[in-house]
Design goal:
The complex is a heterodimer of chains A (about 110) and B (about 110).
Chain A lengths: L3 E2 L4 E5 L4 E7 L6 E7 L6 E7 L4 E3 L3 E6 L4 E6 L8 E9 L2 E4 L3 E6 L1
Parallel strand pairs in A: 2-11
Antiparallel strand pairs in A: 1-3, 3-8, 4-5, 4-9, 6-7, 7-8, 9-10, 9-11
Chain B lengths: L3 E4 L2 E4 L4 E8 L5 E7 L6 E7 L2 E5 L6 E7 L2 E7 L7 E8 L9 E2 L3 E5 L1
Parallel strand pairs in B: 2-11
Antiparallel strand pairs in B: 1-3, 3-8, 4-5, 4-9, 5-6, 7-8, 9-10, 9-11
């Protein structure tokens, strides 16, 4: 069965606001945790990853936080734009496997 | 070139048909993957190839038969499928080392079994 899962299936955010997408995991043996974005009709696209021994990693407009104590992962998107509308999956990497969580649909309100 | 190309984009097949899905990448990646994705669900891992050898089979029924003829190509041969096999089939590739997490996905083949 899956060892990663998301708290909320849908999230609506006002354009320009920050978005926070959450994910819970149950397996502590993962090497990395990764966020993917999947737009309609496309394959998943890598956003950002975090090694399992890190707490925080920042990219361009995105930040991933890892709380190993409560086995929780989050993706923060700053200044959300219409192009951010998509389904977001967290995934865990236990090489060579890449296992996806349930997914959250992010909708941007103009 | 950071593309994974899948053909065909759409496929309709009968339960007695034999068809093949194709995947190609020219990024020098030595790990290649097949995933199955049902509507509103996450991708589910089916097979992993490492250096053209099958390294993981996630208990996939034998009516799905993968093949990796060379380091750039990955096929999925389909035979005697069931309507419940209708889904989006995604191919992905990545570097073959644990520190490289970025897997590149193709746009998928939308398969309908009638």
């Amino acid at each position: 069965g899956e060892s990663v899962g998301l708290h909320l299936p849908t999230l609506s955010v006002q354009e320009g606001d920050n978005s926070i997408i959450n994910c819970a995991y149950s397996n502590s043996a993962s090497d990395y945790f990764i966020w993917y974005k999947q737009e309609s009709g496309k394959g998943p696209q890598f956003i950002i990853d975090i090694r399992s021994n890190m707490d925080k990693r920042q990219g361009q407009r995105v930040t991933v936080l890892l709380n190993k104590t409560v086995k929780h992962l989050s993706l923060q998107i700053a200044a959300t734009q219409p192009g951010d509308s998509a389904v977001y999956f967290c995934a865990e990497r236990r090489f060579p496997k890449l296992t996806f969580g349930t997914g959250t649909r992010l909708t941007i309100i103009p | 070139d950071t593309e994974v190309t899948q053909t065909p984009k759409h496929l309709v097949m009968g339960m007695t048909n034999k068809k093949s899905l194709k995947c190609e990448q020219h990024m020098g990646h030595r790990a290649m993957y097949w995933y199955k994705q049902k509507a509103k669900k996450p991708p589910e891992l089916m097979f992993v190839y490492s250096y053209e050898k099958l390294s993981i089979n996630e208990s996939v029924p034998s009516r799905f038969s993968p093949e990796c003829p060379n380091s750039s190509l990955l096929n999925l041969h389909l035979h005697a499928l069931q309507p419940e096999d209708s889904a989006l089939y995604l191919c992905a590739s990545s570097q073959e080392k644990s520190g490289d997490t970025e897997a590149f996905f193709g746009q998928g083949t939308r398969l309908t079994v009638v």
